[in-house]
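Predict structure. Chain length: 335.
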Amino acid sequence: MDLDVFVSAHRAEWDRLDALLSRHRRLTGAEADELVALYQRTATHLSLIQSSAPDPQLTGRLSQLVARARSAVTGTRRASWRDVTRFLTHGFPAAVYRSRHWWIPTALISTAVAVLLGWWIGTHPEVQSSIAAPDELRDLTRPGGQYEAYYSSHPAASFAAQVWTNNAQAAAMCLVLGIFLCLPVVWILFQNMLNVGIGLGLMSSAGRLDTFLGLILPHGLLELTAVFVAAGTGLRLGWTVIDPGPRSRRTALAEEGRAALGMAIGLALVLFVSGAIEGFVTPSGLPTWARITIGVVAELAFLAYVYVLGGRAARAGETGDLEPVERSAAVPTAG
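Prediction complete.
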């Protein structure tokens, strides 16, 4: 494409669009229609220049012009309770549902790693001795020892808040760091599974596996599911960098990144629930079966939320991204 010829042919349209946007009075109906038409044409011009003859100065000018025109055409929009409701009933569950092919394998593999680590630690005394001295291990795993006391070491409310903060940070790191080719996510997952495996191995070697399960299952089912969802989404985002599919890498990352940001907010709410269970239910005097039942019910409720509401929304075309009117203007890219 001859850039000079292209600019000469369309400069008048850009100047006219700029003039309409600079008007301080209300536009007439004809002028408003003209503004919309010029906005659409200028967006197409910008796409052609970016793909065929990129020029930084011209691209910058047209990008600014298109952004101003889009703002004038769509107007400003404030968030409302409708947006919150839509996010909770459509956007978030649909995003989790769409990522299931990533987080379900992540959950299965991670759980297998934790179990293998627990078996290895529990059946090899030399590994246990490398973790702590024998007296320390006995104090850790004995009835009423440090492992059990951990869940009641602070007031329930402050403990729940601390747990929620730590887990939300871990989930957010998985979502954000996934863009670095997945490697940080794998490391964060391994650290989490190592902690679970150590507790599993030490408590089982002390003959207290039932106590371990009674302490970790009430909150751990929902908590670990949220971490697996975050990790799976982070891995998906990282894979988008490697293979964006039919979309351009920039467009794919923008779409998946916005969906991941929304998932971070949704998962923070899920982790708030698991943190409340860990703070108030896990250390409570309820029978073990009752505490585990609460954890199982919370987990099943979340899965039903994802597969029923999320599946329905995903099949209707929901992706967890912003609504079309809220996204940046996008036009087909010239070949």
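Summary: The two ends are 12 Å apart (CA to CA).
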